[in-house]
Amino acid sequence: MAGLNYSHAMTRRTFTKLWTAAAAATVAPAIIAKDPPAPAAEEAKLQSEFLLDLTIERGPSNNVGSVGVNRVVVPVVGGTFEGPRLKGTIVGPAGDWIIARPDGSSVLDIRAVLQTDDNEKIYMTARGIAYTPKGGTLFARILPVFETGSAKYSWLNNVVAVGVKRPMPGVAYRVYQIL
């Protein structure tokens, strides 16, 4: 071991002390850390507020068919939307590209241009699920997403929303903003 400078060499005892300190620093926070405090009951609840009522006027369905599922394209020929902060009509092009699944449920894929009463345009897409339970009525939920370049309605670009089918003739949803 000639030429070895022991002033920089590490002994087993020094190595063991350093390794133990490093391991303790890594493991200790995990042991010491407690579960984060439970949120207050109000914070844990999903909260929402009414955004708008959406009524869709459908044209005649086009049954396309497909392997394993049934694809149906339904033109949206008009409709309205109204809420506390916006109001207007659905303008073309618009449609619902539906996949009817073998279990009787349907995947909804709605795309539409909304025109506000002050002539601003909002692009809306909505995915959803619809089905009718045995002995029940149609159950449908959609997840609308909005896009607009309008400064007045730019707040819609950041909205997370859920639409609930309304029990009335035709296609109508009450849309809620998730807070």
Care to describe what's here?
There is one protein chain. This protein is mainly β. Helix content is 14%, strand content 47%. It is built from two helices and nine strands; from the N terminus they run ααβββββββββ. The protein has an eight-stranded antiparallel β-barrel. The mean pLDDT is 87.
Q: Can you count the helices?
A: 2
Query: SSE order, as H and E?
Result: HHEEEEEEEEE
**Class derived from helix and strand content:** mainly beta
> What strand order characterises the main sheet?
1-3-4-5-6-7-8-9
- How much of the sequence is in beta strands? over 45%
How many beta strands in the DSSP annotation?
Answer: 9
- Shape estimate: globular
Spatial gap, N to C terminus: 71 Å
The residue ranges in which pLDDT falls below 50 over 5 or more consecutive positions are none
Largest sheet report? 8 strands, antiparallel, barrel
Give me the Rg, rounded.
29 Å
Helix content: 10-25%
Average pLDDT figure: 87
Topology (SSEs and partners):
Layout: H1 12-32, H2 41-44, E1 48-58, E2 62-63, E3 70-82, E4 87-100, E5 106-116, E6 121-131, E7 139-147, E8 161-165, E9 171-178
Concise synopsis of the structure shown:
With 179 residues, the chain is mainly beta. 14% of the residues lie in helices and 47% in strands.
